[in-house]
Design goal:
- A hairpin with a 3-residue loop joins strand 1 and strand 2.
- The model has no long low-confidence stretch (mean pLDDT about 85).
- Helix content is about 55%, strand content about 5%.
- A two-stranded antiparallel sheet has the order 1-2.
- By secondary structure, the protein is mostly helical.
- Helix 3 (about 55-65) crosses helix 6.
- It has 2 domains: about 1-30, no CATH class; about 35-140, no CATH class.
Length: about 140
């Protein structure tokens, strides 16, 4: 981060500066680009990188896990508390990591089940099928 004419500072130095106010902090937060950014809606960053005919997959995944109470509870139990080691492995290895692949496969099953339970008011059958086909390709060799 750029300091007041004195060069660069670490984030730790910047945040401890007594001159930093709420507006500075809110501006900083607006520059972050996490995978999911909650606003009045969920902004899914990875949906920007997926081929257009597969856009149902991230929508079905998030909708099934977030809006179906049973799936939300079961997903939370499956994932457990935040783990820096697991997050680091997920970023480095993705689905090549057996534990990440197992968790992802189980989350997909939960999301599809939740999406089916929510029904047409949330997700159409063709979108559920498109998501299933996408995840079946992505997780080939795993039960979904």
């Amino acid at each position: 981060m750029r300091g007041g004419g004195s060069g660069y500072r670490t984030f730790r130095e910047w945040i401890r500066d007594p001159a930093i106010n709420r507006d500075d902090w809110l501006f900083h937060l607006s520059t972050l680009f996490p995978e999911v950014r909650p606003k009045e809606f969920f902004e899914l960053r990875s949906a920007d990188t997926i081929e257009p005919d597969a856009l149902a997959a991230p929508v079905v995944f998030v909708t099934g896990l977030v809006y179906d109470d049973e799936c939300a509870r079961r997903a939370s139990e499956l994932i457990g508390p935040p783990s820096e080691k697991l997050l680091e492995r997920a970023g480095r290895l993705g689905l090549a990591d057996p534990e990440i692949r197992r968790i992802a496969s189980r989350l997909v099953v939960l999301a599809l089940d939740g999406g089916r339970r929510l029904g047409n008011d949330y997700l159409r059958k063709q979108h559920l099928e498109a998501a299933y086909q996408y995840f079946a390709r992505a997780l080939r060799g795993n039960d979904i």
